[in-house]
Amino acid sequence: MTLKKDENYEFCDHFQFYLKLEALLLAKKEELGKFNEGCSSIENDYSGIISNSKDICAKFKYIATAFLNVTGSDDSVNINGFLYLNFWLNYQLKDIKNPTVSSKQFYDNLKEKDPSFDIGLKLNDKISVIEKEHLNNMIMLRNLYENYIAIQDIINDKETSEKSCLDYPKKCTQIFEEANKYCSTDNINFCKALKTFIEKYEYMFKDTEYKNCKLHKPLTLTNYSYPEDSDSSEYFYADSWDQGISTNSINKIVVIFTLISSFLIFLILYKATPFGTYVRSKIKRRKEKWTNLEYVNENKSILQSTEYQPINEENNQLRISYY
Questions:
Q1: What is the pLDDT of residue 196?
Q2: Which is nearest to 9 in space by CA: 137, 154, 143?
Q3: Residue partners of 275: CB distance under 8 A and separation at least 6
Q4: Residue 213: C-alpha distances to residues 77, 148, 166, 176 (Å)
Q5: Pfam families, per this entry (predicted)?
Q6: Which of 31-35, 73-77, 135-139, 210-214 has the least mean pLDDT?
Q7: Cα 127 from Cα 84, distance rounded (Å)
Q8: What share of residues in the chain are helix, strand, coil (percent, to 5)?
Q9: Cα 257 to Cα 137: distance, rounded to the nearest angstrom
């Protein structure tokens, strides 16, 4: 089936982060309860249409507020965060059959009932309806990362029985094989997201000590042809793993980038802040102290070397009397 438009799947590469953050936020029931304002009237509006509209309303406001409080300029981090919020709302409303109810309509209604939410309207043009086929693909990616997180938690927790890991790799294989059917030249971004998952997934199993927590079987993208007028470097080949950057390489790049960033931050602090002035004054005083000490030691050694040596009168050109 040909899709009406291509969709941005880049945020799906960070599902493991978003899912963990979502679970962490929703576990704080007391904080979540503070976002019920305006949701009771939402419940009345969708009575008989959405059974858990009040719950969706409160959770969406809570998660969205957490994201909005840390967003600034439209960099890739913020853009992906907005894309995830849009996916989250579409995902919650996926089973609604009423054509008048959509993610955008729900957001607009929520804003009307609670004007204090998203007062800066940052989400106003970010919430939209995701085409059904794309949404299903994203849900499969979400399910893959759910299993990925479960396996990762078992590997990282030495006290967890490795037997509990047995089912997750099998589930991942089943979900991936289903998702693989929808990877084609009509949906390159989805193929890229699947390839990114494969790299993370297979790297996770490297050097693990658990016998039962192993790769069920290699995950391979279905081969597909590329348009003749397209640059093949823009696409991911199913069996050309060496063309992509491995997760290990990415981790190394991140570490190097972090070290460089830390150095630059220190340099800025040193050059342009009171902290820098303080440090420079300390260094200057310490340097002067060592210079003075060296001077004293040098002159002391000169005095010691000449103290008991007679003056050579032939070299005493000024004829100064010495006593």
A1: 95
A2: 137
A3: 269
A4: 32, 11, 6, 18
A5: Plasmodium_Vir
A6: 73-77
A7: 10
A8: 65, 0, 35
A9: 32
Candidates 222, 219, 224; CA nearest to 186 is 224
What percentage of the chain has pLDDT greater than the value 90? 44
**DSSP designation for 120:** T
Tell me the CA distances in angstroms from 8 to 83, 89, 262, 267, 292, one per residue in order: 8, 16, 32, 37, 65
Q: Where are the domains of the chain?
A: 10-246, 252-306
Look up residue 305 and give its amino acid: S
Q: Are 98 and 45 in contact (CB under 8 A)?
A: no
Nearest to 280 by CA among 288, 289, 290, 271: 271
Tokens of residue 268, six digits: 């800025």
Highest-confidence range of 110-119, 136-145, 247-256, by mean pLDDT? 136-145
The Cβ of residue 28 has, within 10 Å, a number of other Cβ atoms equal to: 11
Give residue 141's pLDDT. 98
Average pLDDT over residues 36-47: 89
Task: Say how far apart CA 153 and CA 160 lie, in whole Å.
Answer: 9
Q: How far apart are CA 207 and CA 285, in angstroms?
A: 52
Q: Residues 138, 85: contact at Cβ < 8 Å?
A: no
Residue carrying structure tokens 């820098």: 276
